[in-house]
Amino acid sequence: MKILLLEDNERLSDLIIEALDQSRYQVDAFSDGKKALEAIDNGYDCFILDINVPGIDGLTLLKEIRFLDSQTPAIIISANIDLETIKEAYCDGCDEYLKKPFYVDELVFKVDKLCKPTHTKLHFSETVFFDTHAQLLYENNEEVKLAKKEILLLNLMAKHLDKIITFEMIECYVWEGELTSLENVRALVKRLRKKLPSETLLSQGGMGYKLRYM
Fold first, then answer.
1. Which strand ranges, in their side-by-side order, compose the sheet holding 208-211?
2. What is the pLDDT of residues 3-19, one digit of tens each?
3. Minimal CA–CA distance to 171: which of 192, 193, 156?
4. What is the value of pTM for the model shown?
5. Which domains, ranges and CATH numbers included, belong to the chain?
6. Is the separation of the CB atoms in 42 and 176 below 8 Å?
7. What is the DSSP letter of 23?
């Protein structure tokens, strides 16, 4: 899973990256809000944003993120304890507000809580399941080989169970911000369907797809 970190304190940024790396997260770190803005549509699972940073501040960046994406979790980390600022952050769409100084392990716990699928094993039939932590697909307890984009698509759908996964969400997450076509998305779904039980990936009236599980 991939995280965008906006933090201009180099020492704190390094500590957060190290802790998240140990929990098997990939972190793209930025110290400038303008540079972070250029990367927000690169398929992140979580945003961790400091408020007072060079370029664009964290709250302005959060508004830009929510304009494009209303679902991906966002955590604000800040030394600012002004009640109005905290209220503004939640109104702008943050999921957690962590006041500095904090224990880095507490941040990792919040990331785990917000980002990891609630199901460790997602069963599609009596013999086929997806291990959401290892990100591996099994049939009769034998691994089914998946391409990177197939894994990303299953992971995206596992994070948003019972919701329609739109073509735009797939493009952003699976193609990690690179432009693609509707034909490419449909071709990916077609390939993945061949590795899953029938009627697992359900088309939703031209809007996207939904995952059927046990």
1. 165-166, 208-211, 201-203
2. 999 999 999 999 999 99
3. 156
4. 0.71
5. 2-115 (3.40.50.2300), 121-211 (1.10.10.10)
6. yes
7. T
